[in-house]
């Protein structure tokens, strides 16, 4: 064990304050350019240049989550192979009414304005993460006939998409009027 009296007798580095010792520690950590180059700059450049993947660089550091989530309990587990992809920007400005972008009887975009993946609807692009195409992250995997995410256009039993233009939705019905045709 270190003798505290001997440690206090030694001269302290310039700028060191006994009342706030962590200020000096943090200042030295920030000024260590070799650490930042080795741990941040070089890995970030390799990922940005597509030389290596983000998972390879982060390793087990990818296990992040809220308190109590399963991600916190995965210490020592293999990193997940698929990261959640951020939502890409919408194609056009947000519109107040829903318009159907239809070409040759098939939806081209969904009601939110995201382009539909043509490969998914022709059975050529099977992979997706939460409905987003993994090949082109700006496209959604939805049926071009009914906009369902559970199947593609080749497996859809519906008629072609509605004609181009503004379509009025059916709505949910009135509220507070009771159930119609209720039998006692």
Structure description:
The protein is of the alpha+beta class and 184 residues long. Among the domains are: 19-61, no CATH class; 85-167, no CATH class. Helix content is 23%, strand content 9%. The strands form four sheets. The chain has a two-stranded antiparallel sheet. Strands 2-3 form a two-stranded antiparallel ribbon. It has a two-stranded parallel sheet with strand order 4-7. The longest helix is centred in the first third of the chain and has 16 residues, at 33-48. The N and C termini lie far apart (83 Å). The model has no long low-confidence stretch (mean pLDDT 72). Residues 174-184 have a biased composition (Basic residues). Residues 59-104, 154-184 are annotated as: Disordered.
Short structural summary:
The protein is of the alpha+beta class and 184 residues long. It has helices at 4-9, 21-31, 33-48, 54-58, 118-121; strands at residues 99-100, 102-103, 106-107, 115-116, 128-129, 132-133, 139-140, 165-166. The radius of gyration is 28 Å and the shape is rod-shaped.
SSE topology:
Elements: H1 4-9, H2 21-31, H3 33-48, H4 54-58, E1 99-100, E2 102-103, E3 106-107, E4 115-116, H5 118-121, E5 128-129, E6 132-133, E7 139-140, E8 165-166
Parallel strand pairs: 4-7
Antiparallel strand pairs: 1-8, 2-3, 5-6
Region (Disordered): 59-104, 154-184
Biased composition (Basic residues): 174-184
């Amino acid at each position: 064990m270190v003798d505290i009296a001997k440690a206090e007798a030694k001269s302290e580095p310039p700028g060191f304050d006994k009342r706030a010792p962590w200020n000096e520690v943090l200042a030295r950590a920030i000024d260590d350019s070799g650490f930042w180059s080795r741990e941040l700059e070089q890995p970030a450049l390799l990922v940005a240049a597509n030389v290596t993947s983000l998972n390879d660089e982060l390793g087990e550091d990818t296990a992040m989550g809220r308190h109590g989530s399963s991600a916190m309990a995965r210490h020592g587990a293999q990193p997940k192979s698929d990261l959640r992809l951020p939502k890409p920007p919408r194609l056009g400005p947000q519109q107040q009414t829903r318009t159907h972008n239809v070409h040759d009887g098939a939806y081209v975009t969904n009601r939110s304005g995201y382009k539909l993946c043509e490969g998914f609807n022709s059975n050529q692009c099977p992979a997706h993460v939460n409905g987003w195409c993994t090949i082109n992250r700006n496209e959604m995997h939805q049926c071009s006939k009914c906009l369902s995410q559970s199947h593609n256009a080749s497996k859809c039993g519906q008629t072609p998409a509605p004609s181009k233009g503004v379509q009025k939705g059916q709505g949910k019905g009135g509220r507070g009027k009771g159930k119609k045709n209720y039998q006692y």
